[in-house]
Amino acid sequence: MGELPLDINIQEPRWDQSTFLGRARHFFTVTDPRNLLLSAAQLETSRNIVQNYRAGVVTPGITEDQLWRAKYVYDSAFHPDTGEKVVLIGRMSAQVPMNMTITGCMLTFYRKTPTVVFWQWVNQSFNAIVNYSNRSGDTPITVRQLGTAYVSATTGAVATALGLKSLTKHLPPLVGRFVPFAAVAAANCINIPLMRQRELQVGIPVADEAGQRLGYSVTAAKQGIFQVVISRICMAIPAMAIPPLIMDTLEKKDFLKRRPWLGAPLQVGLVGFCLVFATPLCCALFPQKSSINVSKLEPELRAQIHEQNPSVEVVYYNKGL
């Protein structure tokens, strides 16, 4: 067998990212929970294979499928801009198991104030880790900024949940089941922009089609963060809208009335089933490597690009997840 050629572009995903189907296949691979079971040695091996290949060195005996597998293992555990290893629960492959547990519990224990506060706090703590781990760019965020974002999002989520809970006391029980979703949606609108506020201050890196960095853009950051907020809210809809409807029906049946302890695990299972599909499909709503016309950038950056690269009309950036 001949040596693998060096013209395979592993800087980009394996599938066409200009189509929704191609992006969906990519994210089904990236969010695969089985990636969490990989050892540190396996992650390091994959990183070496990828970095060596990018440097023009082919690992002896490796096939193209093995190269792509190494690339996706590498992408699942290391930040695309900084190259640092992402903490385990901050990886996209942790989204389904972590969210199915947290969301299932939010939907199950929504009646009492202490449990509402506790699970909203747990959810925002997890979201803070995910948002920081999957931020765009390589600009550092200070501990103070991190703390402000975390406290603001947690306060917003809890206030929304408790406020809506009090408003729905006299409404049908089914309405109350949707309070956690409203709180999560509100918190996403707070948490993500605040956790990535540094990008809104100094911008995120934008590059030409070849990957040559051209500068930093706040406009691109705003567009990317908006896309992430939409994706996250859409991601929550199936998992937080379908199970409550099913559980509201099942809890009226004798089977669950006699076995109330089955409610929580059943709800967690339903949420997990929804998230297995919703997570990658909603991540695929927008390209990971998003684009923006130079004409829409800040005047200073636009002038700089036109001066140095007059032929460039579109720039690209990592929108984050």
Assess the beta-strand content as a share of residues: 5-15%
Shape: globular
Number of domain units: 2
> What is the C-alpha radius of gyration, as a whole number of Å?
22 Å
Profile the largest sheet: 2 strands, antiparallel
- Total strand segments: 4
Helix and strand element order: HHHHHHHHHEEHHHEHE
Q: Which blocks of ≥5 consecutive residues have pLDDT under 50?
A: none
Across the major sheet, the strand order is: 1-2
Give the proportion of residues in helices: 55-70%
Distance between the termini: 39 Å
What is the averaged pLDDT score?
Answer: 83
Number of helices: 13
Tell me the structural class. Answer: mainly alpha
Protein name: Sidoreflexin
Transmembrane segments: 266-286
Pfam families: SFXNs
InterPro entries: Mtc (IPR004686)
Give a structural overview.
This protein is mainly alpha-helical. The chain has two domains: 67 residues, no CATH class; 225 residues, no CATH class. Helices cover 61% and strands 6% of the residues. It contains 13 helices and four strands. The strands form two sheets. It has a two-stranded antiparallel sheet. A two-stranded antiparallel ribbon has the order 3-4. α2 packs across α3 and α4 runs antiparallel to α5. It is globular and about 65 Å long. The mean pLDDT is 83.
